[in-house]
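Internal tracking record. Fields below are filled automatically when a chain is submitted to the structure queue. Please do not edit lines marked as system-generated. If the sequence contains nonstandard residues, flag them in the REMARKS field before resubmitting.
Queue: standard
Priority: normal
Entity type: single polypeptide chain
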Amino acid sequence: MIDSIAKSDKELADKEEAVRVAQADYDKASQEYEAAKKEADKLANKVKDLDQSIAKSQETIKSLNNRIASNTQIIENNKQVHAKAAKLAARKAFDAQINKALDNVVYGTKTISQHTAKAATVKPAVSTKNTKHALPQTGANDKLSLFAALAGLSLSSIGLGSLISDKKRRRN
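SYSTEM-GENERATED OUTPUT FOLLOWS
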């Protein structure tokens, strides 16, 4: 019986040693688990922060795209306004040239421009002293009448030019 008690004590000591080793392994595994859990939580927080950063970046990109679209529309509007202003400026410059040319045309003994001396004077063909047989006046401005005459002359020359080109086509 003493042998069996000694044997039982030895088995008990072996089992206690196995429990102690198992407990040490369990404690070590628990510590590693806690460390891994903390690391996983850190990584999860980093992922969450990155997701928030991506969301903010996407909102910023969306906002910038909207601003780009708005600025593009403003630029297009400004181009249209600039084009209209350029057309108006060109028209004003053309009108100024026409008015200057019309101002240089003078009737009577004065010359057309200051560079030519009496080269292009206009003298009345018929004396209008006898108002009984004079033609009625239209009341039109002399500058406007001259401009209308010049415009008519240029339009008629365009028409003649088209007739000439039409004859050339028929010959071929």
